[in-house]
Design goal:
about 220 residues; mainly alpha; 10 helices; disordered N terminus
Length: about 220
């Protein structure tokens, strides 16, 4: 039931089922729902992160909400990042499950070369690929990594762990930035996000590769 509703909303907003004023009206409705959820604080953040990651596009995304709540409650910035990461992991899991059933049709929207490149990365090192994908700013094909993970039947536990870890690194960085810079945090993030994302992705890659090497070198 939930999967069906998410598919319908995503399809209609993308213009498959609705056109013109109807599409604008639905987008405005989704935006209104986001504003109402935001009023609920941390529980609302979880739902916003869930919907956004499940494929329902929300204006401003989760990043803005994470930074806003962290700025309002600096002592809770770690909790804010944790809840956003949990919601995002749950939403990505829904999209992953959809991809396991009908992922090939969804992948058809992406160029063949990009599909092959992402598939190669996921098959080579699924946890690293998905974790780093969670850090990428638009137009990085984060959703494509999720769909491919479902299509190639990546173990769901590894998938959820990779999503949660990547999102936690991202949201912790944004929350800390909001605490340190206040209302200047969003402008700073927008201006330097490619550099920040690259640094975070490199850190995640070094951590995961180092952890893997340590495990291999450990005595049996």
């Amino acid at each position: 039931m939930l999967v069906g509703v998410l598919l319908w909303v995503q399809a209609t907003i993308n213009g498959v089922g609705l056109q013109g004023d109807d599409r604008v009206g639905l987008t405005q409705t989704v935006d209104s729902i986001k504003e109402q959820l935001l009023a609920f604080g941390l529980p609302g953040l979880f739902v916003i992160a869930f919907l956004d990651s499940a494929g329902v596009p929300l204006p401003g995304g989760v990043d803005l909400v994470v930074m806003l709540l962290s700025w309002q409650s600096p002592s809770l910035f770690v909790l804010v990042a944790l809840i956003a990461s949990l919601g995002s992991a749950a939403g990505c899991w829904v999209l992953y499950r959809i991809a396991r059933v009908g992922g090939d049709a969804m992948l058809a929207r992406f160029p063949k070369e990009k599909q092959e490149w992402v598939t190669e990365k996921v098959r080579k090192n699924d946890i690293l690929a998905v974790s780093v994908a969670m850090l990428g700013p638009p137009p990085f094909p984060t959703k494509l990594f999720i769909l491919v993970a479902g299509v190639v039947r990546m173990d769901w536990r590894r998938f959820v762990a990779a999503v949660f870890f990547g999102r936690l690194v991202r949201y912790l960085g944004e929350a800390y930035l909001a605490v340190r810079l206040g209302d200047r945090a969003m402008a700073t993030l927008q201006q330097h996000y490619p550099t920040i994302a690259m640094a975070l992705a490199l850190s995640v890659a070094v951590f995961l590769v180092g952890r893997r090497l340590i495990r291999k070198s450990a005595p049996a």
